């Protein structure tokens, strides 16, 4: 939990949006290319193992450990771990709207992300979505929110759905 005032947190998030735009990325894409819900992968792991799939949802946890990064993406059906390895993830590419490992510091818990990669298991046996040659597409939708959105509304948002800070409205 951060001890920063909300205005400072908002400022940091706005700086991240500016950084994404400087990289040529749209932080509020209007479309998602999701192919699977997380529950479909969890419920039929054997049928999806090794396949390339695209999931989208809210980033619920995020940690970088050396050359690896881990997180949990939650959509309306459940959560799935994502695992990224430095050197195996494609670089940032404005043409495809993808965020590379070198720019993962622009992600925050609460962001809505789209991830493409292969379904597998970690060394601990947890079903995971390993982004080896995959992509991470980000939208920073929680910048103006003062509380998390309801899980039923975990979709990629567009800039027209932003709520101005201080308006008292929530997403």
Query: How do the SSEs run, as a string of H and E?
Result: HHHEEEEE
Shape: globular
**Proportion of helical residues:** 10-25%
The stretches of 5 or more residues where confidence is low (pLDDT under 50) are 141-171
The class by helix and strand makeup works out as alpha+beta
Overall strand count: 5
Largest sheet: 5 strands, mixed, barrel
- The whole-number mean of residue pLDDT values reads 77
In percent terms, what proportion of residues is strand?
25-35%
Distance between the termini: 21 Å
Q: What count of helical segments does DSSP give?
A: 3
Output the radius of gyration.
16 Å
| Biggest β-sheet: strands ordered side by side in the sheet | 1-2-3-5-4
How is this structure best summarized?
16% of the residues lie in helices and 31% in strands. The protein has helices at residues 6-22, 38-43, 45-48, and strands at residues 52-65, 68-75, 78-85, 112-121, 127-139.
Tell me what you see in this structure:
The protein has 171 residues and is an alpha+beta fold. The protein has 3 helices and 5 strands. The longest helix is centred in the first third of the chain and has 17 residues.
Please render the helix and strand layout as text.
Blueprint: H1 6-22, H2 38-43, H3 45-48, E1 52-65, E2 68-75, E3 78-85, E4 112-121, E5 127-139
Parallel strand pairs: 3-5
Antiparallel strand pairs: 1-2, 1-4, 2-3, 4-5
Descriptive tags:
single chain, 171 residues, alpha+beta, 5 strands, disordered C terminus
